[in-house]
């Protein structure tokens, strides 16, 4: 074996490595090697593991690799190899891992790869591969990881891929794939833990069969054209930690006054991040939102059609650090117990919130960004604002705030964006509050509007 991973080596690789005829492992990972891979692999017939990942190799994948018939691991990812995926890879029948993504590979996926019946790991992500996904790949029954994200693949997803019952990681995000997902998309994927299918043009309903993937931990389907009611069966995914369905056309269950998917999520006790922004979700926030798991740290429902008030029970989510409810139709007062939370990012702009800013807001001492602009808030900014020592961005523009600006604003040393325009403030700027010309992000209301 020749193992040189992470040895801070650089330069080109000597072709004399070809003389090591009994070599079984050649690992050059995580180095600074460059140039062409000028090794005659036909003279290394016993090679089982070839790894050059994370280097700067370039050129075509050497044709002589086809002579390494016992090769089990071929990892060439994150280099500068170019050209098509070689057809000869299909004769390396012992391959278990084929990872060639992160290069400049072009062309299509060879159907010959369906001959690799022992393949467990197949990754071609972050390349320039185009064309359709061969349905013949559905015969790779041992496949556990299939990563084809960030390419230029077109057409529809072959239904045969969803019969690969050993899969635990399936990623086809950021391609040009279109069409509906099969109705039974996840019915035969009991081991699936991660499913990435964002940034494409899938449409139609979200398959209810997702609930069959009971081990699912990560589900991303953002930036598609999925429509219809959000599947309440998602609540049965007890292992789910990360969910992103943002930027689709999903709706609430017809006839439900409350946003019922949130009640469904109360069964997902491992959730950490939920993103449902930029859909067509309607209804009011149920009080059951306070029963969501306390592991939840990021929760985004911005840019929907949510109505009603913010439930007091929301403050039960004590580990929540980022909350987005912007651009909805939420009305009423800000919850007075909001200070019980540990929010660092709070987005409530573009709603119909009214009343004064609760004093408890000024207890969010770890808050970095607060945007509650474009509402109907009244009253003054409390002198307690100097408690927000970590505050970097504050947006209060387009409300009905009045009175003078508190001197405590000057004590916020990390503040670099302040938006206060379109209010009814009076008096003078606090001494020391100002913005340099090379810091254009700070905007105060015009002096004429303060009076």
From TrEMBL:
Record-linked Pfam families: LRR_1, LRR_14
Segments forming domain Disease resistance R13L4/SHOC-2-like LRR: 14-248
UniProt keyword annotation of Transmembrane helix present: yes
GO terms under cellular component: membrane
Endpoints of the signal sequence: none
Keywords from the named record: Glycoprotein, Leucine-rich repeat, Membrane, Receptor, Repeat, Signal, Transmembrane, Transmembrane helix
Principal location class: membrane
Topology within the bilayer: Single-pass membrane protein
Alphabetical list of SMART domains matching this protein: LRR_TYP
Keyword field contains RNA-binding: no
InterPro entries in UniProt: Leu-rich_rpt, Leu-rich_rpt_typical-subtyp, LRR_dom_sf, LRR_R13L4/SHOC2-like
Locations listed in the record: Membrane
The name this protein goes by in its record: Disease resistance R13L4/SHOC-2-like LRR domain-containing protein
Organism: Nymphaea colorata
């Amino acid at each position: 074996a020749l193992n040189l991973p992470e040895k801070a080596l650089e330069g080109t690789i000597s072709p004399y490595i070809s003389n090591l005829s009994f070599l079984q492992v050649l690992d050059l990972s995580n180095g600074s090697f460059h140039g062409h891979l000028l090794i005659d692999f036909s003279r290394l017939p016993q090679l089982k593991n070839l790894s050059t990942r994370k280097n700067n190799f370039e050129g075509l994948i050497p044709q002589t690799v086809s002579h390494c018939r016992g090769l089990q691991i071929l990892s060439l990812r994150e280099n500068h190899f170019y050209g098509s995926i070689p057809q000869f890879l299909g004769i390396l029948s012992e391959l278990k891992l084929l990872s060639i993504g992160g290069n400049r590979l072009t062309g299509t996926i060879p159907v010959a790869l369906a001959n690799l019946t022992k393949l467990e790991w197949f990754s071609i992500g972050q390349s320039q591969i185009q064309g359709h996904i061969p349905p013949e790949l559905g015969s790779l029954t041992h496949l556990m990881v299939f990563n084809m994200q960030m390419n230029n693949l077109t057409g529809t997803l072959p239904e045969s891929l969803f019969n690969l019952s050993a899969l635990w990681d399936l990623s086809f995000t950021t391609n040009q794939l279109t069409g509906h997902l099969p109705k039974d998309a996840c019915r035969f994927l009991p081991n699936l833990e991660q499913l990435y299918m964002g940034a494409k043009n899938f449409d139609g309903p979200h398959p209810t069969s997702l609930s069959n993937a009971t081990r699912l931990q990560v589900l991303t389907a953002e930036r598609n054209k999925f429509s219809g009611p959000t599947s309440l069966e998602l609540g049965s995914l007890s292992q789910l930690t990360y969910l992103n369905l943002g930027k689709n056309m999903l709706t609430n269950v017809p006839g439900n006054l409350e946003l019922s998917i949130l009640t469904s999520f109360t069964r997902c006790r491992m959730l950490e991040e939920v993103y449902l922004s930029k859909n067509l979700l309607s209804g009011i926030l149920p009080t059951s939102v306070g029963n969501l798991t306390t592991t939840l740290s990021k929760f985004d429902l911005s840019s929907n059609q949510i109505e009603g008030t913010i439930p007091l029970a929301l403050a039960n989510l004590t580990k929540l650090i980022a909350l987005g409810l912007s651009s909805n139709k939420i009305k009423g007062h800000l919850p007075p117990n909001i200070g019980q939370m540990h929010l660092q990012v709070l987005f409530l702009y573009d709603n119909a919130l009214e009343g004064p800013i609760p004093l408890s807001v000024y207890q969010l001492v770890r808050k970095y960004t607060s945007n509650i602009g474009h509402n109907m808030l009244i009253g003054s900014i409390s002198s307690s604002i100097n408690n927000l020592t970590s505050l970097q961005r504050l947006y209060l523009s387009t409300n009905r705030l009045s009175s003078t600006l508190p001197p405590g604003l000057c004590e916020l040393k990390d503040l670099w964006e302040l938006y206060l325009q379109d209010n009814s403030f009076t008096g003078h700027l606090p001494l020391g509050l100002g913005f340099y010309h090379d810091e254009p992000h700070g905007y105060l209301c015009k002096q004429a509007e303060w009076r």
